[in-house]
Amino acid sequence: MKVAFATTDGVNVDEHFGRAGMFAVYELTNDGYKFLEMRKFADGRDSAIEETKGLGQVHDDRVRSKVDKLADCKIVYLTEIGGPSAARLARKGIMPIKVKEVVSIEESLRMLLETVKKLPPPWLKKAINSE
Amino acid sequence: MLTSIDKLLQSGCDTESKHKVCRSRGGESCAFDGAMIVLQPIANAAHLVHGPIACCGNSWEGRGTLSSKGSLHKIGFTTDMTEMDIIYGSEEKLYNAILQTYESVKPKAIFVYATCVSGLIGEDIETVCKKAEAELGIRVIPVNAPGFVGPKNLGNRIAGEVLLDYVIGTGDLPEGDSPDSTASLHCARKSGRAPYSEERLINLIGEYNIAGDLWLVEPVLKDAGIRILSRITGDAAFEEITYAHKAKLNVVVCSRALINIAREMERKYGIPYVEVSFFGKTEMSKALKVISSKLKVESSKIEAIIAKEEKRLQERLKTYEHLRGKKAVLYTGGVKSWSFISALLDLGIEIVAVGTKKSTFEDEEKMKEILGQDAPLIEDVTPKNLLRLLKENNADILVAGGRNQYLAIKEGYPFVDVNQERHTAYAGYDGLVNLAEQISNGIRFYSNQQSVNSHTQSLCEARSAEAISKDKGLLRFARNDRQGNDVLINPLKHSQSIGAAIAFQGIHKALPIIHGAQGCTFLGKVLLTKHFREPIALASTKLFTENVVMGSEENITEAVKGFIEKNNPELIGILTSGLSEVKGDDAASAIKNLKFKIQDSRCQIINVATPDYEGGLEIGYAKAVEALLHIAENSFTVHSSQFTERQINVIVGSHLTPADFTELREIIESFGLRSIILPDLSALDGSRQGLSALSLGGTKIDEIKEMSKSEFTIAIGASMETSAKQLKDRFNIEYKALESIAGLRDTDMLMETLSMLSGKPIPQKYERQRRILIDGMRDAHFYYGSKKICTALEPDLSVQTSRWLEEMGAEVFEVDVNKSALFSIEGDFDLLVSNSHAEDTAKRLGAPLYQMGFPVYKVLGNNHRITIGYWGTLTMINEAANLLAKEVHQ
Asked: B268 pLDDT exceeds 60?
């Protein structure tokens, strides 16, 4: 199961979904996790979504495009997310996880793995075992 | 003003708007509710909820949308998931439920909604829908918006995406009207009807026809030569949405949550869109101008229509000139606030405060543009602060959602309901007159407490006649097949958490908190408020996606701490939901840890496991009572083992009305006994005073502690026997369980028990009532002989009711609430005894409906109705006999 993290530095979950120019993608299994790739959307801040807010369909196109490129992930960690993006993710069965404050990707994965090993919610167990 | 309105209608936003996303501003309910609000108005499609009972049970028939295209929006379909479904999966059950739904009502399409529990266990509803679609040959559409993914407006957006992905663009204009067909064009001309291509076709997006709003707007549009092709979704048929892409213009009606539909249709089909409001004269006229300019209607024609309508409106509003200068406090669901501001200003009403808790930043900007930069926008919309705003500003009226109604009533302020549960249409020019009338009625009532005058009554009657004529267009369904077991249609059942929440309303200074998605609490609160017509104490730990993935014990801690600091409750009850139970939350240990952290507080905290995938209202209520009794156990000290003379415990089930509690106490006290009634719901009869987020006027915590010293326990209702036994096992207090305290024999048993306990004879007052009852039974028995009466009630109430009906000579058929549904009830009955939802079922059966149980909201007075003892029995016998007698005369 793939998990994505909105990040500016590749180390922390520290960015808004729309603004994130980079997502770190990891593979999570019952036994552990490993880094797969850094999925890049822009150098630094991704202004594609932010700057097109209020521009109707142009904005929607950008949201859809970004969501589609993360569609193979089951969970996406971020600090904040706008309504349209959240709706798109939910429609695709992707769980957006909002962190309350900046946290390291390593720590997030460790906690997630602990949940998987200890007492995973049923959908998570199903998702991780189906791959 | 016009300049400000111009700015409102720009599709972009000139002002610098900060990006502001806050979950609490997406609405107080959940994504599931938000999705259903958008899609359910499609009234010839079935709306099947895949989850435990709470999601459907708390909300079906709960939204004010009206339809002339069908009646499926008023029918509740649920798979009613059980624990076995959760353990072994229920995709096969869902598949069968879809097939059975189709067989039952032959819908044009079926929407299948995921909920927290089905979402949490990872049910693949997309695959099931595809399979069912292949089998049935109709559209079967998955709606993946479980409550925990976010707030209500996220659900709105998800529903919009569903329509875009599955419905819009999948159908063609009806045969013979295709704009591309020359032959059809020719035929259409011959028939004297303009083909679609020559008409000005628009779609309405985000208009839900609440209380018939749309029907006050469409005639004016027709006047202007504008025709609504597809309604998304108020008063919509499924078919019309499939060809929405053929329209010339999309009109988004004050609903930013569905702006995604309009934007996508512009990109995909090249259909431009505008944003309008239909509330108030100013907005309605502006809407007509904007729409017609896009459609190239001659401006002179539009101006003439507007002039005519505004002149007529001006004439009709003369009756309401006295509203000018009145002051209003306004608090509505976010996207409607600014449009109601405009409507109120049209009436000359000054707005002294606007609650913005549910508003987005963009909404606030719109409000400021209408009211000015010093607009009185208020973030704090707690009942206490709303009351303060009303007083400080010397306000004349509160304009808000129905849940705030009882706040206004308690404090004697006129109130107008403008949210989705309302019953009066406010859109268009005529809608503004309705709004003026409602406000005027409210103000007049409170100023002189007189009833409405004959002029207003005639207006009401005229509107009722109009509503009746709309009803004639409703489709009627005749059932040919018996419903299978995998789907409940119009469920009788309610969730355990509803039952537990009811029990806590009977504890003084208590606050039940549902540990689940916020929709569980919101919809439960709306339902309880409707039934009891009182403010309801109920809160939520608000579980979202991250709580579902990681831990949520922290949510309990934060919620409890917050409520203790803010409200200072004496008791907090954590009620688990299907979501938290399936997720595996250990609420009990979270509470144990919590108690260490709040040692200083005198607040008691208890846990009640109330998963909605098993049992029902009555069981949830009983579990809450059992949990409450642990307070008595924990306070017991070995030293003071002495019983308190003439003190008895009375543990009362969920089947009594609030007035029954008062009657019961009076009966007991007339024997010289002192009773501790647990719980005590008597304050829900309207006598409660003061404002609080807590329940007030019920059993006190100190009284519960004293229960260990009572001489005897009476359990009222079979479901209460477990609690009575609990007290006996722990404190050696003998008990008697009374299954019923209505009817002649069972009331005699109550009286004899009290007489034995007190050593006193039955008081003269009740001996006299008994003689009156016997006489009344003789008068009424003619109407009951040979009659077949069906009861569809919770078990305890069903037992009690069947007893007195059988005493009268009727033959009684009891429906099992936990396994059955209203839609399945068949039989040649003379009377149906059930809750308010059974109205349509009674019509189908051709029997009158005697409304009892939960919920009762379509008749007044349920909370003041005494249904126990000799007096209550006689009242019910006569009421039911009158219904039966009417049947005979017909």
From this structure: yes
